[in-house]
Design brief:
Layout (H helix, E strand, L loop, with lengths): L10 H21 L1 H40 L3 H28 L8 H17 L3
Helix pairs in contact: 2-3, 2-4
Length: 131
């Protein structure tokens, strides 16, 4: 059975190897890490904005329908239309506030932990709403 010979590195080559290895290990976090969070943040905001546009559009339609129904009906049906009108004023306010905050958000001022915490917070809110 043959044994493989292991070539030993000289002192300078060994130090050069360690330096290159250290640079390769540390560089990806510094070079590429922030770009990934920027992309993640922008995509997250884009998805949130789409959802808020849908919510706002739905709210405007329900405000119109609720207002019309409130004016045309009386009694219990009018109260339902009144509730629908005011509930969708709340929905429109939520959508408007979220869109205002998203368009004024500056990714350069937010660190990666805050980006992830905000994203997880929004996910948790959206998980609760359908219940």
């Amino acid at each position: 059975m043959k044994t493989a010979k292991i070539k030993r590195l000289s002192g300078r080559r060994y130090l050069l190897f360690l330096l290159v290895l250290l640079i390769l290990i540390l560089s990806p976090g510094n070079i590429y890490g922030q770009d990934d969070y920027d992309t993640f943040f922008k995509q997250s905001i884009k998805i949130q904005n789409t959802g808020m546009y849908v919510l706002g559009s739905w709210a405007v339609a329900n405000i119109a329908a609720g207002g019309y129904g409130w004016a045309q009906h009386s009694g219990e049906i009018a109260r339902f239309d009144q509730m629908n009108f005011f509930w969708n004023v709340v929905n429109l306010s939520i959508a408007g506030f979220a869109l205002y905050n998203n368009y004024n958000a500056d990714v350069s001022l937010i660190d990666r932990d805050e980006i992830l915490n905000n994203h997880i917070r929004i996910e948790n809110i959206l998980r609760i709403i359908p219940c």
